[in-house]
Amino acid sequence: MIRCYHRPPVRIVVTLLLILLAVARPARADRPAAPATIAVIPLQAERRLALYGAPVASELAGALTRAGFEVVLVSDVAVVPTRAWLVVDGRLITAGKAVAIELRIRDPERAIDVTRLAARAATVATIDAATRDLAADLTAAITAARPCAPAAPSEPRVVDDPRAPVELPPI
């Protein structure tokens, strides 16, 4: 058995080789996938409606999931995932006996509001029906905001027969 690892030049070369192997990553031909997750945050509400914030958000998240979107329901104290493409948040507001549900859809990467939606329930008892209507509007708005997928390849282009005569325009 040859014992050459105790020599400083060999030890340096082996150490550098191990460092390079640890740091080197294989090259990827494909680009990283675009974020596709939608984060839904429980709605903020005044004291009287605080109980309804999480169930309304859960209903909205369920509607988006049924529409085929990847959805994360974020708790009040959790951080929005970095893979989130859009964030849905909002608030519940009372106006007499009526309840207004206001939603904001925002793009966290560009820091802009994509759209705002609202619905109104005549009473607290009808808040679930207003939430279902708003969930349908939310699904439609997010479907419209979805980035276009790359187009499927079209029909192959037909090339004319190279032996066919070419007509030239007159001079």
What does the secondary structure layout of this molecule look like, with pairings?
Elements lengths: L7 H16 L13 E4 L3 E2 L7 H14 L3 E4 L10 E12 L2 E10 L4 E10 L5 H19 L26
Parallel strand pairs: 1-3, 1-4, 2-4
Antiparallel strand pairs: 4-5, 5-6
Helix pairs in contact: 2-3
- Quick one: biggest sheet? 6 strands, mixed
pLDDT under 50 segments (min length 5)? Answer: 149-154
Structural class: alpha/beta
Order of helices and strands: HEEHEEEEH
Oligomer: single chain
How would you describe the shape?
flat
Number of continuous helical runs: 3
| Average pLDDT over all residues | 79
Distance between the termini: 87 Å
Helix fraction?
25-40%
Number of strands: 6
Q: What Rg is obtained from the alpha carbons, in whole angstroms?
A: 29 Å
Strand composition percent: 15-25%
Q: What descriptive keywords fit this protein?
A:
29% helix, flat, six-stranded mixed sheet, alpha/beta, 171 residues, 3 helices, 6 strands, single chain
Would you kindly provide a written description of the structure presented here, covering whatever features stand out?
By secondary structure, the protein is of the alpha/beta class. It has three helices and six strands; from the N terminus they run αββαββββα. It has helices at 8-23, 53-66, 127-145; strands spanning 37-40, 44-45, 70-73, 84-95, 98-107, 112-121. Strands 1, 2, 3, 4, 5 and 6 form a six-stranded mixed β-sheet that branches. Helix 2 crosses helix 3 (127-145). Residues 149-154 have low confidence and may be disordered.
